[in-house]
Amino acid sequence: MYLIRKAEIADAKVLGRIHSNSWKVAYKGIVPDSVLDNITPEKREKYFERVMSENSEDLFLVYADGKEAGFMTIGRCRDDDRDSTYGEIWGIYLLPEYWNKGIGSYLIDWGINELKSKGYKKVTLWVLEENIKARRFYEKKGFRHDGTVKEIKLGKILNEYRYEKIIT
Asked: Whole-prediction pTM value?
C-alpha cells in the first residue's frame, strides 16, 4: 500500500537521506566518487529546508507500508523553449531498497495526473545520458527523448537528455 503526501519543511531530514542514498547508488560509475562522497544527508537536508521555505517546488513524499520510500518534485517546466502548457518532473528518487517494486511507476503515474489536474498538457524531465536504467524506465512510461541535449558539470562533463510526454 502506497501513500503520497505533500512534503513539509519538517521532512527535510528524511528528504536529505533519501536523496543522498539514491544518488550514491543510482549515479555510481556515472558521477565521480568525489562528487558523490560530498552529497551527504546533512547537506541535502539544508538544501530541502531552503527550497521548501522558498516554496518554489511541489515536493511529495511516497510511503510504502508506512515507511518513507522516496519523493517526487514536480512543477512548471523550467525550460525557456517550452510554454506554459508544459509541466516538469524535476526529480524522482527512491531509496534503493524500493527499486523495482512498482513504487516508482506508481509515483510517476500519480505525478503525471497531478500535473494534468493543474492544466498541463505535456510533461518533460531531464535524465543523464549514461543513466540507462532510468532512461528505460521513462521510456516504458511513454516518455521519449525530444532530441535536446545539455551539458552539465558534476565533477566532469555529462550529457542530460530531455524527455517529453503528451498527457492530455
From this structure: 0.94
